[in-house]
DNA sequence: CGACAAAATCGAACGGTGTGCGATTCCTTT
DNA sequence: AAAGGAATCGCACACCGTTCGATTTTGTCG
């Protein structure tokens, strides 16, 4: 059985003969550490310390750090919710998108990883399965089903990632959110001198609730994507093959 | 002048009295190394070696590795093209999206970085300025201008990132693209056993051109976003404030 | 030209990383 | 009790980003 593409998911987890360390514990501890201190803070030594064991003991249960991260990411996938089959597709998709955004904002480290490698974990696969069911229910068929849900995923991921980046950049300083937003303007205005239109435009943001603004932007984009999907259904270019 | 948010762009580059090393050279060499061997392969020591100088000499021209990456990313921003003001907005946006996708596929390392930190470099700012002009020309006003272009950016980034991830995963093996795609199916089918619908669906992909399929998916999504933007213009909910 | 200061480069070193390996301990089964 | 696999551990290796002080190069002034 020569697998050219050996992934975590092709291998069974070690039997775990009720040992003091288990895959599940390790992943849980890793997620806690990641949530609390971010991606850079996760090292095998620190994780070992948190688990009260040697750093290298982890390697018995997990092949390497990458594989551990894959497991952690799939765990995050598992926390994204998708409404049941009785929900209208637009509502279902909207609820899913908001859930995914919320989960990613809660586990900021996952956003980068999620896009960085193919997602083949059980939770990810189950989620895609659910999304495809929604797509077919809406009226898509053939490849259009894939295109539909991957368009949606692309938007949510692409919209949330920079949001997280801003939070991280702001969070590394001490000041409050809006307060620092104003301070950033001096930098921005500096870089923006050659673009008066842009500068004038951003002046109107001086007194805005940043969080609310981001949520509004997300809803705007989501509405666009939904309308776009709807348009393709109406136009009938969502056929079984093409 | 207590900047809370000191970025590369607030500091002037070192005068560069025609030294043997300059910021521009360093960034150029870094990009070459990144293009050739990926993000993980870039270390200050290796970069120094490539430049024929000591590793630590670089720190005279650049504060740290993060700052170097910011410069490299902005360079990538600079290679994305946006059609001039005489182009209809739909065409302009479409051309931009395809250009951005192409550039990111050409510099895969940039995709992750691009979403990981706020983009305040001159090229990034210029690009946003241009996008906002297009947005206003289309008929958006107020915050809707921002929402429009950030929706677009979100889609392109979110769509291209997983594409790159797949390429990297496949590229790390020796086999050809479609060939390995088939081999992957055995893994997929394995993980997919509990999802017969999904498995059946993916069976139809066995004999498909992967690259072409991805391009089609991208165009599908882009059309959705464009239609969605158009819908908001028609409906008139792109007012100066709301 | 020599002198001197500033600019630029460099090597050594510090604390950290992921991980391979051999020795060691633990637990289960006979 | 003995044996043998399962699980843990410490050490070591090669590499990383970055700091710091010493060193070399370079431009300017007398």
From TrEMBL, chains A, B:
Keyword Ligase listed: no
Classification via Gene3D superfamilies: Homeodomain-like, Tetracycline Repressor, domain 2
GO molecular function: DNA-binding transcription factor activity; transcription cis-regulatory region binding
Record keywords: DNA-binding, Repressor, Transcription, Transcription regulation
Residue ranges annotated for the HTH tetR-type domain, each copy included: 20-80
Source taxon at top rank: Bacteria
SUPFAM superfamilies registered for this protein in UniProt: Homeodomain-like (SSF46689), Tetracyclin repressor-like, C-terminal domain (SSF48498)
DNA-binding span(s): 43-62
Biological process (GO), any one: negative regulation of DNA-templated transcription
One matching Pfam family: TetR_C_1
Protein name: AcrR family transcriptional regulator
